[in-house]
Write a structure and sequence with these properties.
single chain, four-stranded antiparallel β-sheet
């Protein structure tokens, strides 16, 4: 590259651009009038080139900023991992420094495949709801973006399958309320990223809520046997498998026959005894004018006072021997003689509490 001025690598010489090309000049040649004019011309060209360079740099920086903002607003950027198990380290050692955080676990575990599994879907939804309530500020920027990406996939699955509409509506409402509170504290290290990014995400949440409100469940086209064609004893047996009283209420609104069965006292009694303890039930007794217990009213009253029992087909497990966090059907590299004896099933709340140290 030619030297544009005096340099220790080329003492007493400089390069001048002429019509014939670059030429090397000495200090004596610079004293000539023609050389002085050409040198001044070169200086003017250099200043002009510097101005153009600064303008191009500013344009490039502006273009990069617009591209970065567009990428931040685009929640479809894939940052998913597919690890079946991770090592949960709670302290710094010589071999490994730092701690395993909730955001790191959320990034590395395979939640994308979990939402496709019917056994794990409700578990992931409940975990997303708990994070939306109180743990969202503790996630890193990448983890927060992954959270929104996974949430988008959950909503899309519900729209495609037309199932589990109510839990997702409650999840979106909880997240929107939390974001309304957190966005007001932007600039205080509450959320990571530009406020415009979070406003765009809140707009997406509102759009998802509207899509879920407009969903229309199509009736099956098959003309085979339906629930109402079964005997009443079998219908009650099926209703006893429903863990949520709101599902019973919705089922009773389908037709008068099912509405009468959903008012069965034994059905609501078993539902209360499944979710709540005897002590909790005794504190919230409701007796009718005829001296009978109002189990249906007691159930909804107990739901307002106590948390309901949660049960999932598949959960995350923690090995207390090797501190490996894994899904139930995943083999982890445990060195214990009997790995199954040292595994603990984690509820969504236990999963979050695992990283609150």
């Amino acid at each position: 590259m030619p030297f544009l001025g005096q340099d220790w690598r080329s003492p007493g010489q400089s390069w001048v651009k002429t019509e014939e090309g670059w030429k090397k000049t000495t200090s004596d040649e610079k004293n000539d009038d023609g050389s002085i004019e050409s040198f001044c011309k070169v200086e003017e060209e250099q200043c002009f080139n510097k101005e153009n360079l600064l303008l191009s740099l500013s344009y490039d920086m502006a273009a990069k900023k617009r591209k970065k903002d567009l990428m931040n607003n685009n929640t479809k950027a894939p940052y998913f991992h597919k690890e079946k198990w991770i090592y949960v380290h709670k302290g710094s050692t010589k071999e490994r420094h730092g701690y395993c955080t909730l955001g790191e676990a959320f990034n590395r575990l395979d939640f994308c495949s979990a939402i496709k599994d019917a056994r794990r879907f409700n578990y992931v939804v409940r975990l997303l709801e708990l994070i939306a309530k109180s743990q969202l500020p503790s996630l890193s920027g990448v983890a927060q973006k992954n959270y929104m990406n996974i949430l988008e996939r959950v909503v899309q699955k519900v729209l495609d399958d037309q199932q589990n509409v109510r839990p997702i509506k409650e999840l979106l409402q909880t997240l929107y309320v939390s974001l309304c509170t957190l966005v007001q504290d932007m600039g205080k290290s509450v959320l990571v990223g530009n406020i415009n990014t979070w406003v765009h995400r809140m707009e997406n949440i509102m759009q998802w809520q509207q899509q879920l409100d407009n969903i229309q469940i199509n009736r099956p086209t098959s003309t085979g046997m339906t629930l109402t064609d079964l005997p009443a004893s079998l219908q009650l047996n099926i209703m006893q498998r429903l863990p949520d009283g709101r599902d019973l209420v919705s089922l009773g609104q389908v037709c008068p026959e099912l509405g009468g069965l959903t008012e069965d006292c034994l059905l609501w009694r078993r539902l209360c005894q499944y979710h709540f303890t005897d002590r909790q039930i005794r504190k919230r007794l409701i007796v009718s004018d005829k001296g009978h217990l109002e189990w249906k009213k007691m159930y909804f009253k107990l739901c307002r006072c106590y948390p309901v029992r949660e049960q999932y087909s598949d959960t995350l497990h923690l090995c207390t021997h090797c501190h490996i966090l894994f899904w139930k059907d995943t083999n982890h590299p445990c060195t214990a003689n009997n790995p199954e004896s040292c595994t603990v099933s984690l509820s969504p709340q236990d999963f979050i509490s695992l990283f609150n140290f």
